[in-house]
From TrEMBL:
ATP binds at K54. This is Protein kinase domain-containing protein. GO terms for molecular function: ATP binding; protein serine/threonine kinase activity. Keywords: ATP-binding, Kinase, Nucleotide-binding, Transferase. It comes from Rhizophagus clarus. Residues 26-265 form the Protein kinase domain.
Length: 265
């Protein structure tokens, strides 16, 4: 990839990504989220109605690469459990670039859970199943590992799950060769998938531990997720506290070369 000024036109043409003229993104915007790369707004777009736009300030190669990776992987997805990717846009004078996508009206799963007064087991199983469907699609149909799965990247639209944020994702197939189904370094992919499954476990724990009004009496032991920390309490006594983060794949092979390749990919 040539990282000169034409990179934007290149990804738009090579990947068939829709370039949405900046004027078509509404100027009335409501801030709905904030992440490492910038602000996420709710606005309207002539073509799609209500949309979420994720804004990136891009002024160097690293930011360009991150944007391209996220756009290319998100653009591969077409599934009801994945937030729909619509296209990209830009304001060249301000170095601002946008991912335009489906708007999830119920926000993040974390907020959705915290606002609920009660949630029965059937509903929790429904949500868990939908998250698993989305992750299974990424792993088994696209050969994509998400790498940042948590309840703030899992969104809810009309009560249904939509996985989002492909900023850290990795695709284990040729992104710009659609006819090729060749999967790179299968063993690395297995490890990356395991890391996602670990994250899924943490999400399911958060979902299963949701018990706001479910039990009148306090459970004797309580596991709760606070931001990125897992706390375990016994009869209200603090027992343990872990800092959680998605597991980095660990390479068991002593072959340094394949380790480097997997991370450079
Ligand atoms: N399509 C959407 N619909 C509704 N809200 C959204 C949407 N996309 C993002 N958000 C909101 O914006 C927040 C940040 O979005 P996102 O995680 O994609 O940004 P990020 O910069 O990659 O964040 P981080 O690096 O911290 O994971 C989300 O947690 C969510 O609250």
């Amino acid at each position: 990839m040539d990282f000169n000024k034409s990179w934007y036109d290149n990804i738009s043409i090579e990947d068939g990504i829709l370039d949405i003229p900046y004027e078509q993104i509404g100027i009335e915007r409501t801030r709905i989220g904030f992440g490492k790369f910038g602000i996420v707004y709710k606005t309207t777009c002539n073509l799609f109605g209500d949309v979420a736009v994720k804004e990136f300030y891009i002024n160097d190669q690293e930011y360009t690469e991150n944007f391209i990776n996220e756009v290319r992987i998100h653009n591969l997805t077409r599934h009801k459990r994945i937030i729909q990717f619509y296209g990209i846009s830009r304001n060249v004078e301000k170095n601002l670039y946008y991912i335009v996508m489906e708007y999830a009206n119920h926000g993040t799963l974390r907020d959705f859970l915290s606002k609920k007064n009660s949630m029965d087991l059937k509903e929790r199983i429904r949500i868990a199943t939908q998250i698993s469907e989305g992750l299974s699609y990424l792993h088994n149909k696209l050969n994509v590992s998400h790498q940042d799965l948590h309840t703030k990247n899992i969104l809810v639209k009309n009560g249904n799950i939509k996985i989002s944020d492909f900023g850290k994702s990795k695709c284990f197939k040729h992104l710009n060769n659609k006819s090729s189904n060749k999967i790179f370094n299968n063993s690395s992919f297995t490890l990356y998938k395991m890391s996602d499954v670990h994250s899924l476990g943490v999400v399911l724990l958060e979902l299963s531990n949701y018990r706001k009004t479910l039990h009148k009496e306090q459970p004797t032991s309580k596991i709760c997720l606070k931001k990125d920390r897992l706390e375990i309490r016994e009869k209200s006594r603090f027992v343990s506290n872990f800092k959680l983060k998605p597991l980095e794949p660990v390479y068991l092979s002593a072959d340094k070369k394949s380790y480097v390749n997997a991370h450079d990919f």
